[in-house]
Amino acid sequence: MHCLVLKGTTTTHQCGVKTMKRRLAISTFVALLVWNQASLSLTKEIEMTSLSPTLAHKRATDLITHFISNYHYKKTPLDDQLSSRILDKYIESLDPNRSYFIEEDINSFQKYRTQLDDSLRGADLSPAFEIFKVFRIRVDQRVNFSLQQLKKEQDFAVDEEYFFDRKEAPWAKDLQALDELWRKRLKNDILSLKLSDKKTDKLSDVLKKRYNSLARRTHQLNSEDVFQFFMNAYTTSIEPHTSYFSPRTSENFDIQMRLSLEGIGAVLQSDDEHTLVKEIIVGGPADLNKELQAEDKIVGVGQGTGTKEPIVDVVGWRLDDVVDLIRGPKDSHVRLEVLPKAAGVGGARKVISLKRNKINLEEQAAKSYLIDLPVTNPTTQGKTTKKIGIIDLPTFYLDFAALSRGEKDYRSSTRDVKKLIEDLRKENIEGLIIDLRSNGGGSLLEATSLTGLFIETGPVVQVKDAIGRIEINDDSDPTITYTGPLAVLVNRYSASASEIFAGAIQDYRRGVLIGEPTFGKGTVQNLIDLNRFDDRSENTLGHLKTTIAQFFRVSGNSTQHRGVVPDIIFPTALDNADYGEKSYKNALPWASVTPATYRAALAPVEAFEAARYQHEQRIALDPAFKLLMEEMQTIKKLQDRESVSLSELIRKTERDDIELKNKQREVRHEDIAKTLPTLIKHENHRKPAETKKDDDHKPESKDILLIEAARILHDLINGKSDPAVKPQLVIHKD
């Protein structure tokens, strides 16, 4: 039985309310610096430590290896080859930036390279614990060195570089080499705080608290934590969406699934020493506030609205601990000190105040808009407008509980979209756009039924399980809600159920697909409660999330890895291995199966090439697109940096230049926005002037990608005089 709820861009932790998409990214622990005052030798420290696996861990290991070996979609033998990958993954998870271990340590770990498979089969977890003990001591040494270094005067007139990205760097040859790396690291920490207007006399105190706090937190890690790290090194060595949840993590998962968390409404993820905002959840406090953006980095958290409660520095904290600080009761306030993505590593910080609340589920529901698109009348050469309908669908939702109770008015994305389409048709729209940008998925049933609003009957998606059986999910309803010109707008964060719907529309030739190649998550996961298989566990074993199936389009192509490629691709699409499923080294590859039998509807695919040409010609001269691409290139350049200068003058000059250019771009944005068509929220026929900012999630008028999608759709509609490209529904009689 495959899982009906599909989410899926990344594996992260949410602070707010949303289906949890958490891959236990153990990279968190690059930031777990520890301070140990004792001057014992490494051998003595290891001998004295009390960390050791428990009987529950051994029972969980037996169950995890059994389920993965027998039921995982990807048949991966537990052998020496996998053992080697597990070792590399475990070391990487503890020290992804290669800042703690030295070459001698890595060499000493090689004795485990071909032994971890045997250890897992025998539930022998001692290698994982021994490696972790070495890691903890090395981190102790680094923090102790940094605290001593804090006492020294720093010369910020010297122009030297600090290479903060060491993921691909060689391991430090010895402790002296590591000392030099950390000397620069500490100098950068001081300079970053200094440039963020922290009082000079407080800088040392801030960093002392940072390191001491990190030390305390790391020494609080227990055997359960170490077991979780190692199990995830094992599971993610097989496939990135397979992971182990410890009992504590399982409890947090249950809270999120019950939608009872109260927070800011953001998906957070560990990014070396920082907490990265991976996604803003529609309908949450952060979404309604508009200041916090995806890819911003949270470096501090404060409570309350005023300055009485200080902002706590959270650089280097565990992700769970940062979430605990941000989480709080409804209507309370939290302040986030943020390093904006557009500022770069050495940029200026800002403080954002948010009022905690539950996610407004109504804001996650489908919404409709109208756009009056200015066009030139080809007959009179005068100006006129074309009405294009837009449906914004943030997720594929379904009230399973109400449906199971037999309630007639249960809430679902398909039912809501159908009603919105019927209302838009009364406005005499000439075309319809389904906006699935950043829609991470949801209900498989909804992806199927929503497709059915635009086709007659037929298969929508094929699901292949671990033993090769293929199940086809069909739309059996012959009625078609909308037969007019259709466009589907996607981006790199459209995943899972979004890809199923978009792929079906494309395969059926029902409409034009516009935007960026989608995320590429075409797999199905199932959550296994390990406690159900051990009467002695008493809820101490945790959960295993394992991949059990893969999706295939009706054409036979997988959505996995490559995603769904639009018919017309925006220039914002990034040919970058850092995004999407392809960014995971061991993601399941693209594959194909036998195509399903289906009858295609003839959207004007012959006209797509002409529409693509018109689009490219238009945006080449469009100041809004020029500004957008300039902004994207600037951000990418900042994100691609691997080092920063430790000269105060150079850093300050760079920061001021970035701030100035960002402000100049914002002014240009505002000027351009005045010239763009207005998006009118369709529900209740309210105009923007009548819409309250605090209760209306309305696409901004400067959403040039949405406006350009409307222009593309108009170009296709404008070719209706040619019967060969008429956008009507035609069923092949195969």
Kindly report the name of the CATH homologous superfamily of the largest domain: 2-enoyl-CoA Hydratase, Chain A, domain 1
Instruction: Output mean pLDDT.
Output: 83
**CATH class group of the largest domain:** Alpha Beta
What count of helical segments does DSSP give? 20
Gyration radius, in Å: 27 Å
- In percent terms, what proportion of residues is strand? 15-25%
Largest sheet: 7 strands, antiparallel
Question: How would the global form be characterised?
Answer: globular
Q: Per CATH, what is the topology of the largest domain? A: 2-enoyl-CoA Hydratase, Chain A, domain 1
Specify the CATH architecture of the largest domain. Alpha-Beta Complex
Q: Low-confidence segments, ≥5 residues, pLDDT <50?
A: 1-49, 254-261, 684-701, 720-734
Which oligomeric form is depicted?
Answer: single chain
The total tally of domains equals 3
Distance between the termini: 32 Å
- The class by helix and strand makeup works out as alpha+beta
